[in-house]
């Protein structure tokens, strides 16, 4: 696989203009203008410096990660002061294009006071509010189609999220804006179209312009097309490129942070509903999710179009997993119709091979049923467990192939107990821990037993663990009982809390799509009441960065860290 081809550090096509003093870039969606993680810098400035082989770039503006468009930077310090003076003196004309719903009437000027709100949002506040900053945006209507309107925005000030929060406050949130509640769209429909300013050394007024992306006109014509995007080859290719671009930082991770397996397409969060794609080193695993009302993947031509487009990205091969329409339906996961053993495109991966996650090796199998041996959405939680485990005892329930146990042992746990109803899964876990070199670093027990039964026995023996990990399937069946997270999770969590040591922690997770985050928290408080333990803190954990959600959506994975009182 040619990783540099799939995730280029920079593309010459992004450069709109360059001379001895100024470089102007059309920033793509998904590329941040400042590094979110200093250890793995993926921002536009760092990447452009490396591309041009220079050390200095003068930066005077920022665009949100999901906003595309024009950014101008200076290449010499002599030009920087003059450019800075123009931005600070509001002598730069900044023109944006946005697509919205709910805009009433024609053009007008939005003049508001903005201040930070909750959850990373900005909010409109009374002008005299302490810390408030004035934001002025002139709005012009470019076109209408039903409830959809394309607007031209001239920003006289440069506040955080200015256009987004002002339009939302005016009842016309930008389409695709997850933070401010816009209508569904394949991306945030905000584009910095032009900058007009005086050239810092040559003099004279110049205008730098980036064409409005084609998805803006497409959205104006049709709105959100849903799964029909799979029938439009150009729109499909754009969506795949955008999704890949958003994972650049993971693709370029190295050293102790090296990660070679992660999600590259997360269904509607990447404007590709019903399609999830994971990278495992050099291979994609495509998962097709059916809908309870209709099967969007019954059309073989559509399937082939998607698989061809994924393979064309540049991986060595593509494996296929077909998920049942109803999540509660238990299927034979090794049937060829659900999970072909061989790749459906390209060459095969080894039957068993290691991937890296935060520098740790885990063993995976891509052609062995619906599962691969690791759940990639738990990457951040495994890192947390690794950080929490030094000198502690850890119980890993529903452990599957013991990935959490491996992380705990690597983090310095003195004891791990992995409990799962499947002896073969536990044997694979033992093999993975042996391969990673952590089997001898702690006392590691592997218990093939129903989790409820083991918990009851552990409580009777008054066993206590510093960290307990609870990540059950949404539905499961053993010889003793059927489990449904929707009805049985509180009972299970209560049994798990009963074996958590004072001051210890329970990491509780659920991937049941029908359980909302607020309901999940209530289940855990109910579990604490049943277990008669003192809960000191219940902390929601953030969604993984490679699992974005669509407008109005919620992550399938809910993770909560419960800390008991001492």
Description:
With 566 residues, the protein is an alpha+beta fold. Helix 6 (233-246) crosses helix 8, helix 9 (379-388) packs parallel to helix 10 and helix 13 (485-497) packs across helix 14 (517-531). The longest helix has 15 residues, at 517-531. It is globular. 43% of the residues are buried. The model has no long low-confidence stretch (mean pLDDT 93).
Secondary structure blueprint with pairings:
Blueprint: H1 3-6, E1 15-18, E2 22-27, H2 44-52, E3 58-59, E4 68-74, H3 77-88, E5 93-101, E6 108-116, E7 122-125, E8 133-145, E9 148-155, H4 162-169, E10 190-198, E11 205-209, H5 214-222, H6 233-246, H7 248-251, E12 261-266, E13 275-280, E14 283-289, H8 300-312, E15 317-323, E16 345-346, E17 353-357, E18 360-364, H9 379-388, E19 393-397, H10 403-410, E20 415-420, H11 423-436, E21 443-448, H12 451-460, E22 465-470, E23 475-477, E24 482-484, H13 485-497, E25 500-510, H14 517-531, E26 535-540, E27 558-564
Parallel strand pairs: 4-10, 14-15, 19-20, 19-22, 20-21, 22-25
Antiparallel strand pairs: 1-2, 2-4, 3-4, 5-9, 5-10, 6-7, 6-8, 8-9, 10-11, 12-13, 13-14, 15-16, 17-18, 23-24, 25-27, 26-27
Helix pairs in contact: 6-8, 9-10, 13-14
């Amino acid at each position: 696989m040619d990783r540099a081809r799939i995730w280029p550090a920079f593309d010459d096509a992004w450069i709109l203009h360059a001379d001895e003093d100024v470089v102007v870039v059309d920033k793509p969606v998904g590329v941040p203008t400042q590094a979110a993680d200093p250890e793995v810098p993926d921002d536009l400035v760092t990447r452009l410096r490396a591309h041009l082989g220079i050390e200095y770039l003068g930066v005077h503006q920022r665009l949100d990660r999901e906003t595309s468009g024009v950014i101008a930077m200076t290449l010499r310090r002599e030009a920087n002061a003059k450019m800075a003076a123009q931005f600070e003196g509001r002598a730069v004309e900044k023109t944006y294009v946005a697509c919205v719903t709910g805009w009433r009437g024609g053009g007008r000027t939005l003049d508001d006071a903005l201040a930070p709100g909750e959850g990373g949002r900005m909010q409109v506040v009374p002008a005299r509010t302490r810390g408030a900053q004035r934001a002025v945006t002139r709005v012009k209507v470019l076109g209408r189609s039903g409830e959809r309107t394309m607007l031209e925005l001239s920003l006289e000030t440069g506040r955080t999220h200015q256009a987004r929060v002002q339009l939302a406050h005016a009842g016309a949130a930008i389409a695709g804006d997850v933070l401010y509640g816009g209508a569904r769209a394949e991306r945030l429909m905000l584009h910095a179209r032009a900058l007009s300013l005086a050239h810092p050394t040559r003099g004279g007024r110049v205008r730098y312009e980036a064409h409005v992306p084609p998805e803006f006109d497409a959205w104006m014509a049709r709105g959100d097309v849903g799964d029909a995007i799979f029938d439009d080859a150009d729109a499909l290719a754009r969506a795949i490129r955008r999704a890949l671009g958003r994972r650049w930082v993971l693709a370029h991770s190295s050293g102790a942070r090296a990660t070679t397996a992660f999600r590259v397409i997360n269904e509607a969060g990447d404007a590709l509903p019903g399609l999830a794609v994971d990278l495992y080193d050099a291979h994609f695993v495509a998962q097709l999710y059916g809908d309870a009302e209709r099967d969007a993947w019954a059309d073989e031509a559509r399937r082939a179009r998607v698989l061809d487009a994924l393979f064309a990205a540049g991986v060595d091969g593509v494996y296929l997993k077909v998920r049942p329409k109803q999540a509660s339906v238990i299927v034979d996961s090794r049937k060829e119709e659900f999970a072909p053993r061989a790749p459906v495109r390209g060459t095969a991966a080894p039957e068993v091979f290691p991937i890296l996650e935060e520098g740790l090796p885990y063993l995976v199998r891509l052609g062995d049923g619906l599962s691969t041996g690791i759940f990639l959405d738990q990457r951040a939680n495994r890192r947390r467990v690794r950080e929490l485990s030094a000198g502690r005892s850890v119980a890993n329930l529903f452990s599957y192939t013991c990935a959490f146990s491996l992380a705990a042992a690597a983090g310095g746990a003195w004891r791990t107990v992995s409990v799962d109803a499947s002896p073969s899964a536990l044997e694979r876990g033992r093999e993975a821990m042996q391969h990673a070199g952590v089997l001898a670093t702690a006392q590691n027990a592997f218990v093939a037993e129903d989790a409820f039964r083991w918990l009851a026995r552990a409580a009777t023996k008054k066993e206590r663990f510093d960290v307990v990990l609870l990540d059950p399937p949404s539905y499961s069946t053993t010889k003793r009982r059927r489990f449904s997270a929707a009805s049985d999770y509180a009972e299970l969590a209560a049994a798990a809390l009963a074996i958590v040591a004072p001051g210890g922690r329970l990491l509780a997770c659920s991937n049941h799509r029908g359980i909302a985050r607020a309901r999940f928290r209530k289940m855990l408080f109910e579990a604490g009441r049943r277990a008669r333990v003192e809960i000191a803190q219940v902390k929601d954990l953030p969604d993984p960065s490679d699992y974005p959600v669509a407008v109005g959506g919620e992550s399938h994975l809910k993770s909560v860290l419960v800390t008991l009182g001492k």
